[in-house]
Amino acid sequence: MGVKGFVEGGIASIVAGCSTHPLDLIKVRMQLQGENNAPIHSLRPALAFQNTTTTTIHHPPPPRVGPVTVGVRIFQQEGVAALFSGVSATVLRQTLYSTTRMGLYEIFKQKWTDPETRNITLTRKIAAGLIAGGIGAAVGNPADVAMVRMQADGRLPVAQRRNYKSVVDAITRMAKQEGVTSLWRGSSLTVNRAMLVTASQLASYDQIKETILEKGLMRDGLGTHVTASFAAGFVAAVASNPVDVIKTRVMNMKVEPGAAPPYTGALDCALKTVRAEGPMALYKGFIPTISRQGPFTVVLFVTLEQVRKLLKDF
């Protein structure tokens, strides 16, 4: 039963990840909007008097655009194939991260289900999601870093692009040029986000589905699965978006040899983002996040339910 849960979750996750990849790419591009437009404090001249004050140069930020505009620009400037930039990393990420979290979640659910009533409390579902999500994120972080970089590459000037050929090329070059530890850059954020997403997504889906069936609102079928999964996707998007913005920026930052990194860590990135762009910057890309999280969760659980039916005799 344990292995079966990994297989079912892995298949459903890969299908969902590939089918919603363009929405995820648009979300990443939107989360990086305005990142390089923080105010710059000019240095005082060496011979300036003591009472000379420093001046602050504010570069006017480019106008922020919505997901449709971002998608159209990518299509016009980079071609339709650019909407699937980093899809190989998505496949690897879902294979490592989602297969692990989905399989472990089912194992914890079976362990913690009351043998007499065959029920499991919401608190235990959330705990199962937190643990499973954290472990899955630690396993899949290298693929996550590669995916973010491949998705964001098109927004950089041509001379600064990394031009990774595939997820294998991205991971290999990162390990050689920046060290093996770079593959786990932002891992604390990835783990935190994955814990929030898995706990809110899987636990809320199970809870909402059970409530619908217990109340007799709908029968156990496609309608129930779509309703419960879309609601779960909304809950997951609200819970995870701030961490996702910071994770994207930390993973995407370019560290030049001998130069200080743009961010020293997650907290530093969060503070700089809020100071430069305001607190709502942490919900930058929320529309594409929910636009992606909703369909992703629907495809994930609808596919999962169908795969379970196909493999029920195994």
User: Could you report the average pLDDT, rounded to the nearest whole number?
Assistant: 84
Shape: globular
Structural class: mainly alpha
Rg on CA atoms, Å: 22 Å
Helix content: 55-70%
**Beta-strand residue percentage:** under 5%
Low-confidence stretches: 38-58
Quaternary? single chain
Summarize the helix and strand pattern as letters. HHEEHHHHHHHH
Question: Reading side by side through the largest sheet, how are the strands ordered?
Answer: 1-2
Distance between the termini: 9 Å
In DSSP terms (H or I, runs of 4 or more residues), the helix count works out at: 10
Biggest β-sheet description = 2 strands, antiparallel
Number-wise, the strands total: 2
Give the structure's gist in a few sentences.
With 314 residues, the chain is an all-alpha fold. It has helices at 2-19, 21-31, 67-78, 87-112, 122-152, 167-178, 187-215, 222-252, 266-277, 286-310, and strands at 40-41, 56-57. The chain is built from ten helices and two strands, in the order ααββαααααααα.
Task: Give the secondary structure arrangement, pairings included.
Elements: H1 2-19, H2 21-31, E1 40-41, E2 56-57, H3 67-78, H4 87-112, H5 122-152, H6 167-178, H7 187-215, H8 222-252, H9 266-277, H10 286-310
Antiparallel strand pairs: 1-2
Solcar repeats: 4-111, 120-211, 220-310
Family: Belongs to the mitochondrial carrier (TC 2.A.29) family.
Protein name: Mitochondrial uncoupling protein 5-like
